[in-house]
Fold each of these.
Amino acid sequence: MSTGGSAFVNFIDVQKTYDGETLVVKNLNLAIQRGEFLTLLGPSGSGKTTTLMMLAGFEVPTHGRIELDGQAINNLAPHKRDIGMVFQNYALFPHMTVEENLAFPLSVRKLAKAEIEQKIDRALAMVQLSQMRKRRPAQLSGGQQQRVALARALVFDPKLVLMDEPLGALDKQLREHMQIEIKHIHQNLGVTVVYVTHDQGEALTMSDRVAVFSDGEIQQLASPADLYERPQNSFVAQFIGENNRLTGVVTELGNGHCSVRVGDVGEIRALPVKIGTSGQKTTLSLRPERVRINPAIGACANVFDARVEELIYMGDHTRARVHVLGSSNFIVKVPNSEGMPDLAPGSAIRIGWRPEDCRALDAF
């Protein structure tokens, strides 16, 4: 992850430890462009929230340098960084009305009363809460409170907005609605956003780029499509979306493809992505929607006999769990666009896939 001189935010060789021994963040180099929506994604303890807190100024790097708009901010107090912040718990003042909550960061900056009113009006219109300005947080729904928190983070026109799991307390339907709302607000304002979540669907929906964290390091930094379609290691392949995983040994490598022996049951042609030489172990990654049932002759280089173990109707597709290549947990997603597939538990089928849809990665 290279830094860039023109980047709006730069992490340069940043480390963080709390006990002097274990690095929570390891040698982080990350460049964030002006106007970008970047998501820090990873499981609990991966270092994503610590990274956000160092950028906000609530944590101090043990080593390295953080720059914002060309200036080092390691020793700059949080309130002097001109950063808006949105938390999962909203952090609204319960005794203040909506407009008073929004006025607070403006009053601290000693803006004129007329300008404060103008900025509050604009922020409330942006989150569609103009009619709620006299209510207190307790009189609002969770989604409305989160909109107020977002408006408060944006009302003073900050250089940068940081969001720490802001939708985690909302139910699924409202969370998905707010994802699109935040995405549209970002597109309209062009503000730079750094967003933290452990929800990979949320990251794929909202982001320009996603940095996947594990064990204090970025495993891959890419667009949502690249992360899903072209994972660079086994951790990313497993963490982003559903994935079939097969382990084997490389038997042949060349001409842009490789052959992998899976136990004593099959030889698979695959795309070599992160493997060594012939004879080394590898993990094969294959998305369930890339697998075809009873493929036409010649359509797939990899074709195997399988047995249907379980069928689960999912609305737009049927999720078939099949036994193949010694695994009874191999998943195939069958679209229901042309009606329910003619399958039944226990039935024998053939499944196949193209070599370019099967990625040979590091042994996981």
Amino acid sequence: MVKATQIDAAWKGTAACHSCGVRHLVLFADLEAADFAHIHTPIEEVHVEAGTQLYGMGDVASSILTIRRGLVKLVTLLPDGTQRIVRLVRVGGVAGLEALVKPQYDHIAVALQPVEFCLIPVATIRQLQERTPRLHQRLMEKWHEALSTADGFLANLSTGNARQRVARLLLLLADETPYAPVRLFTREDMGAILAITLETASRTISDFKRGGAITDLGHGRVTCDIDALTRIAEAG
């Protein structure tokens, strides 16, 4: 789990919840001003760099994480020791929800990009659950969202040929800001997400660059031709 000494910039308290730029997306969206008076356990705002492990599979699950910026991968270990990325958590998503019902985390959570998140102690959630049904409803919505995302992840990114899978992944990354540059995953991560080999991932990305579906900006960043990628993703 991320320790306090690893936090680049941390804020403890609840004042930022009122003015959070993505509050409408995250767990506390439906809370009212009076509800924040019931929060007695500090909430930490955490900033980490890409590649940082936020928590490990089997770690003590004492907090949940709401993502305010960046992208987080949730990884599971298969019986043969290989890793498989089972879900991506984007802005507004929640990682570690199992902490509310289990003593340990189910996955390894790793930042794929520079990530900013709020680390909310389970004790805080329980305090609020006792006092407001609004939070309970929001938690149920986040559980459903997580399950729907996982189902869609498997359906969209684990079926079809390699070109279709890579195109769908790029469209997913470009979804929030279609005309802004996208930072590519490592080929290893791409293979783990899409269940393709590293060589296939590299070859497909090279083909997309040559064909103009993506334009290389250097330093792992590309722009996406949404129409071209959509045609590839939908090809039968």
Amino acid sequence: MRAPVDTFALRGLGLAALLTLAACGTTPQKPASSNVPMPSGGKVKAPVRQDPTLPALPAAGSGRGGYYKDDGPGDNPPPNLRDVPDAEVRNEPYSTRSNRPYVVFGKTYTPITGNEPFTQKGTGTWYGKKFHGQRTSSGEIYDMYKMTAAHPTLPIPSYARVTSIDSGEQVIVRINDRGPFHATRVIDVSYTAALKLGFLGKGSHQVVVERLLPADIDAILAARAAPKPAPLTPSVVAISIDTPVETGAVVQPEVTTQMLPVDATVAAPAPAALASGFYLQLGAYSRADNAETGRSRLAPYAAALGTLGVVQAGNLFRLYGGPFSSRAEAARAAANLPESTGIKPIVIQR
């Protein structure tokens, strides 16, 4: 067994070299089983496309695509990778061995072991075939087709929400490895995570990394365990419309009742800042108009989500619902949001 520092150093050397070049996409072929190292030698075969939803890019080892040496996409990616769910969060003890301070390229990294919030912005990249089937810093086998990531200092194991500023997509990944060791690059995600974030072909995106604290994980688990209510429908109210009707020489008003949908966005304008309390983060967008579109889409569910507001934080426009009096109340509201919306709320405290 290699010493922990040696393991980190070797991982660092490989990742640092890997990240000197842009990682790229994949050429889908036949499904392959997970946790099996990809072959590294032999003649490079021409890419065969079987899944049109995946980018068709140069194969690993082809000398094209900007990969580091023989890294790049796998030869036989499994089907339906876009449907792979986010990492299944759970609170578990941190690894003692994987969270000791270590040195790579003369720089000391001290992993986080407390429960302080952590948010980081920078370049997100991905790593693939060269490390597929090998041991990560956690001791687990790296599977490029699962929702995992490497980070220099986040606890192992832990979970993070990664948002692509370019695409607006979000995923939750399990941190089980160390790297990347580069001044501007903040996280190295798996092949599948990069695919879902929208930067598999480009090789990198500007991202925001947000650590999920144990309390956040508890809220997510509570929301999943809560009974699923019937799908919500837009709220309606009965309003009276006075319609004058002539009866001889006297004009009498006739009162009729009509059901009209309530526009929740009118009742709850977006706040410039959030008051203290618990909120649901419902999305993060690189453009204000996209955030407003997201707010309009969720307007029919404002009765459950509370005031819907868009707040700018740096280059991101975050969509929030709330406030709620407690984390548990916010988690229940998250559980009331139909899965058909495609939204994965996260409870935050402001």
